[in-house]
Amino acid sequence: MTWMDILILENLIREKKAQILNIVEHHGLNHLKTIQCSQELDHLLNLYERTKYSSM
Questions:
Q1: Cα–Cα distance between 39 and 51 in angstroms, integer?
Q2: Strand, coil or helix: what is 1?
Q3: In whole angstroms, what is the distance from residue 51 CA to residue 22 CA?
Q4: DSSP per-residue string spanning 20-55
Q5: Sign of the CA dihedral 10, 15, 21, 27?
Q6: How far apart are CA 32 and CA 27, in angstroms?
Q7: Can you give the pLDDT at residue 29?
Q8: How far is residue 29's CA from residue 36's CA, in Å, rounded to a whole number?
Q9: What gap in Å lies between CA 30 and CA 55, rounded to an integer?
Q10: Element (H, E) at 2
């Protein structure tokens, strides 16, 4: 992956964090939507870490 891909991932992570905050505000921490969004964020963060360290 290129540095551009890493920048795209960083943007997706920021967007997902904002989405989680919005969901929590409307549904609470234990709602299924919050948990699913959190799992999606975890996936993005794991991909980011693997990508970042493999490109060094």
A1: 18
A2: coil
A3: 28
A4: HHHHHHHH-TTSHHHHHHHHHHHHHHHHHHHHHHHT
A5: negative
A6: 9
A7: 96
A8: 11
A9: 36
A10: none
pLDDT string in tens for the chain (56-residue length): 688 889 999 999 999 999 999 999 999 999 999 999 999 999 999 999 998 877 66
Compute the chain's Rg from CA coordinates.
Answer: 13
Who contacts 34 (Cβ-Cβ below 8 Å, separation ≥6)? 20, 23, 24, 27, 28
What are the structure tokens assigned to 5, written together? Answer: 């891909």
- The identity of residue 30, as a single letter, is N
H or E segment at 14? helix 3-27
